[in-house]
UniProtKB/TrEMBL annotation:
<feature type="domain" description="PilZ">
    <location>
        <begin position="136"/>
        <end position="226"/>
    </location>
</feature>
<dbReference type="Pfam" id="PF07238">
    <property type="entry name" value="PilZ"/>
</dbReference>
<protein>
    <submittedName>
        <fullName>PilZ domain-containing protein</fullName>
    </submittedName>
</protein>
<dbReference type="GO" id="GO:0035438">
    <property type="term" value="F:cyclic-di-GMP binding"/>
</dbReference>
<dbReference type="InterPro" id="IPR009875">
    <property type="entry name" value="PilZ_domain"/>
</dbReference>
Amino acid sequence: MSAASSAGLPAGIQRPAARAILFALSSPTSDIVRDCFRQFGVDTVLDDDPTGQRLLREKFEACVVALDDPLAAQLMQTARSSPSNQRILIYGLASSTMQALSYSKYGVNAVIDVPVNRSSALKVVRASHLLVLNELRRYARVPIVIDVKVETEQRNFDALTVEVSAGGLSLRTDRSLMMNSSVGLRFSLPNASEPSKPREIKIRGAVAWVNAQEQRAGVRFDVGDTRRPAVKEWVEKYLDL
């Protein structure tokens, strides 16, 4: 059976290529980002208009925007309010965590550190490319960068989410977490159609894995927590399941 037929398309007709639009990036940066997407079969389009008006006319699966651009907020608002691009994957080029968090209400999905280098950019694209290709439904995780308040027996601190699923989430933090330890989490899930109305979640969980070298950890939600279905509902709506 051909790839087209197995995907539900008539024989001889190829699935349209996924496209990522890159807004007003410098030449060295755009070259790196384009090469990273190319490795996963994603076409890239350069656009010098940082207001994102092209998002109102065409469908894209991803966009890349420099968060230090004064028009970054306007661009992301245009993307999230566009009927055909509400679920577009947003990659933000950020020089700091605080810069990325200041745009969390727009649902920034992944952060590429500035200055951009090929190895780190490739790692970010590799981790999120399935959603760009509309294949993330196979395991239903949403890459999303939002602030999460973590409460442990020893201390409370802020962290960043990397991915959110119905059963748990992964974190980016420089704080140490103990395997199997109990934690409380508080975060707000962005609303693609109404960025000003995020959905606040408070939920309990346990640390399932820790990668100290990469400053990441995974938390499994408590199966008995009654707020767990709200996360599942958000994930399914986000992925249009």
